Amino acid sequence: MRNNKSYSEMTAAELREATREYDKEWTGRGLPGKPMTAADRAVHKRARGRPVVGKGAKIVPISIERTLLSEADAFARRRKLKRSEMVAQGLRLVMAARSG
Questions:
Q1: For residues 85 and 9, what is the distance between their CA atoms, to the nearest angstrom?
Q2: Are 72 and 86 within 8 A, CB to CB?
Q3: Which DSSP helix (H) or strand (E) runs through 75?
Q4: Cα–Cα distance, 63 to 69 (Å, whole number)
Q5: Is the same domain home to 59 and 100?
Q6: Range of 67's domain?
Q7: Are 9 and 18 in contact (CB under 8 A)?
Q8: Is the pTM of the predicted complex or chain greater than 0.85?
Q9: Are 29 and 44 in the same domain?
Q10: Mind giving me the DSSP string for 9-53?
């Protein structure tokens, strides 16, 4: 029988019973509690993480003078850019200007 009480009105035992279905492992596809199939794993692998642009990204530690970094971050924020997008655009501009 379904309990019509709100969760805040239920006893601990009633809450346990009402939420028991959420204790089961679920992969997001198929039946809850079943192992993922190869197709499920492929979908999961494609769905997680950042989207790949070009050949993907590589983290490169670099040094930038603090004032310049603050100015660049403020500029990027005003134009709704990510810092990495702005750096990539700057690198492309410099390479294009010097490859003539």
A1: 50
A2: yes
A3: helix 66-78
A4: 9
A5: yes
A6: 55-100
A7: no
A8: no
A9: yes
A10: GS-HHHHHHHTGGGGS---SSSSTTSPPPHHHHHHHHHHSSPPP-
Q: Is 1 inside any structural domain?
A: no
Amino acid letter, residue 68: L
And the tokens for 34? 């079943």
Nearest to 84 by CA among 59, 63, 51, 48: 59
Between the CA of residue 12 and those of 20, 25, 39, 66, what are the distances in Å? 12, 22, 39, 54
- Residue 86's nearest CA partner among 68, 73, 99 is 73
Return per-residue pLDDT of the chain as tens, 100 residues.
456 788 889 999 999 988 888 787 665 655 666 777 888 888 877 776 666 677 778 889 999 999 999 999 999 999 999 999 999 999 999 999 999 7
CATH code at position 68: 1.10.1220
Count the domains in the chain: 2
In a domain, 68, yes or no: yes
